[in-house]
Amino acid sequence: MLRFILRRLLITIPTILVVITITWALVRLAPGNFYTGEKKLPAAIEQNIREKYGLDKPWREQYLRMMSHIMVLDFGTSLSYPGQPVNAIIGRALPVSATIGLLAYLLALAVGIVAGSVAALKQNSKWDYASMTLAMLGISIPNFVLGPILVLVFSLMLYWLPPSRWEGFPSWNVVLPVITLSGIYMAYIARLTRAGMLEVLNSDYIRTARAKGLSESQVVIRHALRGGLLPVVSYTGPALAFLLTGTVVVERIFALPGLGHYFLQAASNRDEPLIIGIVAFVAIILLLMNLLVDITYAYLDPRIRY
Amino acid sequence: MSGTGVPPVNHRQDALALPMNEDEPKLPADETEPSSTALGAPLSLSVVAPLSDDVLHTPPEVAVAEGDVRLTAEDDFVSGTSLWKDARRRLLKNKLAVFGLIVVSIVTVASIVGPFVLKLITGMTPDYIPGDAALIRSFPPFTAPDGSFSWTHPMGTDRQGRDMLARVLQGGQISLMVGVIATLMSLVIGVSYGAIAGYLGGRVDNLMMRLVDVLYAIPYIILVIVLLAMFKDQTPRGQLILLFIALGSVSWLTMARIVRGQVLSLKHQEFVLAARATGVSTPRIIFRHIVPNTLGPVIVYATLTIPSVMLAEAFLSFLGFGVQPPLASWGSLVTDGVQNIGIFPWQLIFPGLTMALTLFSLNFLGDGLRDALDPRMRKF
Predict the structure, then answer these.
(1) On the CB side of B50, how many CA atoms lie within 13 Å of its CA?
(2) DSSP letter assigned to residue B47
């Protein structure tokens, strides 16, 4: 197990370097830079700026300099938010995205597992068809359509919930973003749970559990769910990726100052340190979470040996 | 598919009897397959007829599944136990998949032919802005400027007074085009990559699949945004091509894994051995002999890639990095609609519904195809 974790960590590091390099290359290969605006800067000022940020050095030197800073998790200073270190911006934005993302994931897990289990336990019943059709709808309706519709109904027509803005965690403002973000996962998790449960419910060890006289709820909760949820666990990796793309949209719709918001700003403004900082940070989080998922998977399924 | 006049000759294989991928964690075989088909026989996996005339293989004797009826050559043709006929029957029995197929066909035909027909009937084109300033505003569906009922704009107009129906139809063209072209790109890259890795095996395979693992872990949509944002300042056509490339080049990974898995189980079969013995070159073995036999899962996965690519395009358009005006896709129409949701809901409802319905149908069709072509793949 330890060997497996170490090997995975060893793959993780080059992956992050690849991500950073690709991002850097994309930013650099594209024509223009942060300072090419509609108004041309006087040559002397441009020269000063280039010297200050080391843009006049050969690209190899710049790349190595950036990499050496990133190695100690220093992503430099933002260009479009002058004087603000990228780390500070990430530190400010992360709680927003993390709150929304985590709540959305928990909501999706709760609803998805219940809906999927019910569908599997009552296969081919009304409940099954209803939840699976709903799940398919959830997959097919993009969150940027779902979000505005929720705002229209619950904020503009019923006046129940605030339509946007961030006001800290325990506030009604998080309800709509969380529901919007969790929609698609809920659907995927319900489908995966159903498939996993259907497979497990027909297996021998469930028959054994029933035969030794366990109550149906014990069979389902203690035995079937553990095996049936394996696909859900392995979906967590892709789900995290979805979560990231989802937050970009959701933060746009609900005007939340999260990572996605700053990322879009940085991409549109060509704010190189901020782009690279956010992409690298996100990649690191994603890879570590994936590692965690694999370890959980091995723990849940004793048949798997790495 | 097998309508070339050549009797379909099947490569029967039983994936369980063949060495599976050694790297993956081993799990017991999937037990969810149906116990009988319409023929009453257990399904054999991926029975695929060759597509071209020059690749004919005799069916390997050992691989006939238990309970499978051996047929003579003529019977084989007439009674239609080929994968494709079998799959078609199973697909047509699946109501949701048939619904999906019908909707997708209607939407496709409407997007391609619709704009021309519409121009003949109401005279509306997607970029027609009325010359009269009083008409440059958003009218509700079926409403004439004076408020009475009219057939001119069945979906209303947008803020510039352009006909929404014409724009939804044209948006469908772009959205479907992005979906299909990016999927084709991912198909070409993924199939070649997976087939080469699987067939060559050993160190090459290891290296190639490790690379896929690395790429899998990359938050690719983030990179796509960076790519599109950086190279943005271009013509709408240029942006569209960039979109094809960006989406196609990030969606081939799963395809490569699926094809590699298939190739691993195919490459030890007699027909490959025979081809090698008769001196067929390696590229030819891979692309003429092995790849056609992986077609079932490939088609299934490609069908499921189309909606996900279309969704990604809409997502990028929503963020302002996708299709640029004057071109419109469903994604960009929805984006426009979202901005006016409280006042002109029809600007969101029509493109949004059309897109959701199409994605819904494509997903059902893909699921149906998977159940029909490859019952063992049901898991996800």
Answers:
(1) 17
(2) E
């006929």: which residue's tokens?
A: B85
Interface contacts (A, B; CB < 8 Å): 139
- Map out the domains of chain B as residue ranges: 86-124+168-328+359-377
Q: Assign B136 a pLDDT band (cuts: 50, 70, 90).
A: low
In contact, B146 and B215? CB cutoff 8 Å: no
Residues 183-212 of B with CB under 8 A from A: 210
- Report percent pLDDT > 90 for chain A: 0
> Which residues in chain B have Cβ-Cβ distances shorter than 8 Å to A306?
25
Question: Is B375 in CB contact (< 8 Å) with chain A?
Answer: no
Amino acid A143 reads N
Chain B residues whose CB is inside 8 A of the A245 CB are: 219, 221-222, 315
Give per-residue pLDDT as tens, B53-92. Answer: 444 444 444 444 444 444 444 444 445 456 677 777 777 7
Nearest C-alpha in A relative to B214: A15
> Is residue A157 classed exposed, middle or buried when 0-12, 13-18 and 19+ CB atoms within 10 A define those classes?
exposed
Closest CA to B293 of B277, B310, B269: B269
Q: Are A289 and A236 in contact (CB under 8 A)?
A: yes
Q: Which residues of B touch A203 (CB under 8 A)?
A: 31
pLDDT tens-digit series, residues A153-212? 887 777 777 777 777 777 777 778 888 888 888 888 888 888 888 878 778 888 888 888
Pairwise CA distance, residues A125 & A111, whole Å:
19
Whole-angstrom distance, CA of residue B237 vs CA of residue B249? 18
Res B209: pLDDT: 83
Among A50, A100, A39, A31, residue whose Cα is nearest residue A255: A100
B32/A198 Cβ within 8 A = yes
Question: What would the two tokens of residue B212 be?
Answer: 């896929």
Q: What is residue B32's predicted lDDT score, i.e. its pLDDT? A: 43
Say yes or no to pLDDT of A17 above 80: yes
Q: What is the pLDDT of residues A228-252, one digit of tens each?
A: 777 787 777 767 766 776 788 888 8
The CATH code belonging to domain B86-124+168-328+359-377 is: 1.10.3720
Nearest C-alpha in B relative to A188: B380
d(Cα A18, Cα B214) in Å, to the nearest integer?
9
Q: Decide if B221 contacts B312 (C-beta within 8 A).
A: yes
Measured between beta carbons, which residues in chain A are less than 8 angstroms from residue B27? 303-304
* Residue in A156, A268, A286 nearest the CB of B229: A268
Interchain CB contact of B24 with A (< 8 Å): no
User: 3-class SS at B30?
Assistant: coil
**Angle value at C-alpha A37, between A31 and A42, nearest 5 degrees:** 105
Q: Do B217 and A286 touch (CB under 8 A)?
A: yes
| CB < 8 Å to A248, chain B | 225, 319
Query: Quick one: which of A297, A272, A294, A299 has its CA closest to A29?
Result: A272
pTM beyond 0.90: no
What sign results for the dihedral spanned by CA atoms B250, B251, B257, B263?
negative
What are the structure tokens assigned to B254, written together? 């799963």
